[in-house]
Amino acid sequence: MPLTVREITCKSALTKTGGFLSAYTHSLQPYTGCIFQCPYCYVQALPVHQYHGGLWGEYVDVKMNAPKQLAQELARLKSRGKPVRVFLSSATDPYQGAESKYRITRGCLEAFAADPPDLLVVQTRSPMVRRDFDLIKQIKHCVLSMTLETNDDLVRRRLTPRVPSVSHRLKTLEAAMATGLTVQVTVSPMLPNDPVAFADLLKDRCHRVIVDTYFDGDGAGGKRTERLGIRRLYAQYGYETWYAPDAHHILLKTLKEVMGADRIGFSKEGFSTVEDLSGHT
Ligand code: SF4
């Protein structure tokens, strides 16, 4: 199916947040929709997709005015003395293909650089983020958080074929560390992996790792993931033992042994303590 791209105007840039992201005041989605089409993506079950129509992964709405709108909202919040801790993004990837043309995320980072928030987490699976390392470095209390769900590129190709390769993301992490950014890896959701090899790859490529699972992180104790048919997808490739509430224990233990327990977080609590990490900047 061809990708449908629409240019739209948003009424607001920042969205008040809570629940899993209760450590943040707002999330920011420069786009609606996501070409990475992860089969487990919980956004497919949210009203933002269900009212949109179309198949998940086959449309992208570009919020053309998001940077300008964001600058106004930041000024308003800060003039009222409100805390501003932003998660960019929770329902789209800010560095999917459309960003190379539209540069909406970059425009938002420019607004943050001009008027820094108390905390900004840039969450992506895409090596395209490298283009904006200059801006990320300028923003105080900004963390680059890259998702890497597995060390095994065959698993990645089977389960999330549209997502950038493991090697590209590892190279991006290396570049981020070399640039002096504060870097977090989110193994979220954890996919089948080799724990020892995975921990070895991550130990020098980030400051901290957060592990999350379908059962702890999908907001419904794994029921949302079940409805999306991920159990069947795993069975297709013989990954059944990885679809269990305790499947992450070995990786978590190995990461703590290799990297030190203070550099490892888990699920909601891990996402909530990122503020400590921004002290690296
Ligand atoms: S990258 Fe994130 S928003 Fe995009 S499909 Fe995957 S999980 Fe969903």
Nearest-integer average pLDDT: 94
Structural class: alpha/beta
Which sequence of SSEs, written as H and E, runs from N to C? EEEEHEHEHHEHEHHEHEHHHHEHH
Q: For the largest beta sheet, what order do the strands appear in spatially?
A: 2-3-6-7-8-9-10-11
CATH architecture: Alpha-Beta Horseshoe
Bound molecules: iron/sulfur cluster
Output the CATH class name.
Answer: Alpha Beta
How much β-strand is present in the residues? 15-25%
Instruction: Give a quick account of the main beta sheet: strands, pairing sense, barrel closure.
Output: 8 strands, mixed
Number of strands: 11
What is the overall number of helices? Answer: 14
Low-confidence spans: none
Cα-atom Rg, whole angstroms?
Answer: 18 Å
Instruction: Kindly identify the CATH topology.
Output: pyruvate-formate lyase- activating enzyme
